[in-house]
Amino acid sequence: MATIYQTPRLQLGNAPLDGYAGSETDQFALVWQTTGSLSTDNFIVEYRPVGTSTWTSAPNPSTINTGVGSRINHTVTVTGVNYNTDYEYRVRHFQGSTLVETHQEAFKTRLPVGDLVDLPLLLMVTQPDPDEKLALGQFRIGLI
């Protein structure tokens, strides 16, 4: 019987660069860690756009034995999701046919390449020497 040691964590991105095959859509990965024997355990990962009722099955998780105790890392990568969209995922843990626990969370995918977003900028202008005359448009930048 396995126990979830590290709950599922979301990693956005790692989609192909703009202009390459697959760059029209985004992707995300889920990673979690278990301890104990996986002999009767099964994990089902699903996702859907927020507000919809139908879950889509993700690929089966891949596993890596860490070699530390009985810790096993589980990873699922989902490709083909829309950019700038609210999704939710769930990871259901079964022992045999019995549902043991569910981990569910909402998230938003990245903005598409070329999407312009205003980013706030904090700028501190200093004039350490009050006798120093700066021309219009000139300024000194100080680190905060």
From TrEMBL:
* Database matches in Pfam families: Pur_ac_phosph_N
Its protein name is Fibronectin type III domain-containing protein
Q: Which domain of life does the UniProt lineage start with?
A: Bacteria
Q: Where are the transmembrane segments?
A: none
Residue intervals of the Purple acid phosphatase N-terminal domain: 24-96
